[in-house]
């Protein structure tokens, strides 16, 4: 499936290229947690995954302190973020195949309970790919627009209860991400 994005540079001029990669799978929820409670979520990470990223935040009780912990299939701690707020992230680079357990702990919830955003994401070529012409430069002056095109190939529908998506990144000459575009894959046809 061919897709394209219209990008506009609203900052300093940038010489860049585009980068595709494996498709991603994400679970996004907004659960409610109370002080002292632990919420556990399991995610099955497939072969070839390049990362497992977990983010929580956006607590309705702005004084809440939530903690995030990630365990691998053997129960080993592989990621954690537990500072004095509810905005937490944990990333596992090149995770091993298997089931990971993600725990959110309500360390402090002054209002008694709080809703919060939860998202876990992994990228794996077993889901499919986003292909771009990474040899073509995308040079943008301040205010300049450009069209970025890609071909998305999905190997299947992806796991139940999860979003399947692709991402194209705009990289400057140093390889730093200057922008990104995402395409949500709502239906896969053979």
UniProtKB/TrEMBL annotation:
Residue ranges constituting the Peptidase C-terminal archaeal/bacterial domain according to the UniProt record: 40-106
Region (Disordered): 1-40
Biased composition (Polar residues): 1-11, 26-40
One Pfam family linked to the record: PPC
Protein name in the entry: Peptidase C-terminal archaeal/bacterial domain-containing protein
Lineage: Bacteria, Bacillati, Actinomycetota, Actinomycetes, Kitasatosporales
């Amino acid at each position: 499936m061919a897709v394209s994005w219209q990008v506009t540079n609203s900052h300093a001029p940038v010489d860049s290229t585009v980068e595709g990669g494996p498709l991603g799978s994400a679970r996004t929820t907004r659960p409610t947690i109370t002080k002292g409670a632990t919420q556990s979520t399991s995610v099955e990470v497939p072969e070839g995954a390049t990362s497992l990223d977990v983010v929580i935040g956006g607590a309705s009780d702005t004084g809440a302190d939530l903690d995030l912990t990630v365990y691998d299939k053997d129960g080993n701690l592989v990621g954690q973020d537990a500072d004095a707020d509810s905005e937490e992230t944990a990333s596992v680079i090149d995770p091993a195949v298997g089931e990971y357990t993600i725990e959110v702990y309500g360390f402090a919830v002054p209002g008694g309970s709080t809703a919060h955003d939860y998202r876990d994401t992994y990228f794996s070529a077993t889901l499919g790919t986003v292909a771009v012409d990474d040899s073509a430069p995308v040079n943008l002056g301040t205010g300049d627009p450009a069209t970025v095109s890609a071909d998305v190939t999905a190997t299947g529908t992806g796991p139940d209860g999860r979003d399947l998506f692709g991402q194209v990144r705009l990289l400057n000459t140093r390889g730093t991400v200057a922008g990104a575009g995402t395409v949500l894959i709502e239906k896969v046809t053979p």
